[in-house]
Specification:
single chain; 147 residues; mainly alpha; 0% strand
């Protein structure tokens, strides 16, 4: 009788552990999907914003180039000056800004990816937290009664 009860409890424990592992795996798959989708939507939003900012910078650059050309009374000098500013800025970023950009992006991505989930699993596992699932003839095993 006692052996059957222990065997039955071990069988149920094994089933409960498998269910817990399965639900935990499902939870973390959903959490990974959620974080992946947040990253993908942020990337798409960043590309769209960058596209419009690029066009704004393009038109502002043309306007500044034309204004400089008229001010200097030379049709091409304004365009060369603006192009030179962009060239110097790009070279400065390549040689001095790469590590700063990498650190900034890594820091932001790490905060976003390793952030704790907003909510835990939706279902609790009462078989691991309380002895309320026992049948009427069963009682919880006390520490001093363990084999």
């Amino acid at each position: 009788m006692a052996f059957e009860r222990v065997s039955d409890n071990l069988h149920r424990l094994n089933e409960n552990i498998r269910e817990f592992a399965k639900s935990s795996a499902e939870y973390y798959k959903l959490d990974l999907f959620n974080k992946t989708m947040k990253g993908a939507t942020a990337a798409v939003k960043g590309v769209v914003v960058a596209f419009f900012i690029l066009f704004a910078i393009l038109f502002l650059s043309i306007a500044i180039s034309v204004a400089l050309s008229e001010w200097l009374d030379s049709p091409s000098s304004g365009f060369f000056i603006v192009g030179g500013v962009y060239l110097l800025t790009g070279l400065f970023i390549v040689f001095f800004g790469s590590s700063f950009i990498n650190r900034m992006m890594l820091s932001q991505a790490s905060k976003q990816f390793f952030k704790e989930p907003e909510e835990g699993p939706k279902t609790a596992h009462p078989e691991f937290t309380s002895p309320t699932h026992l049948q009427p003839e069963e009682k919880p095993v006390e520490d001093d009664e363990r084999v």
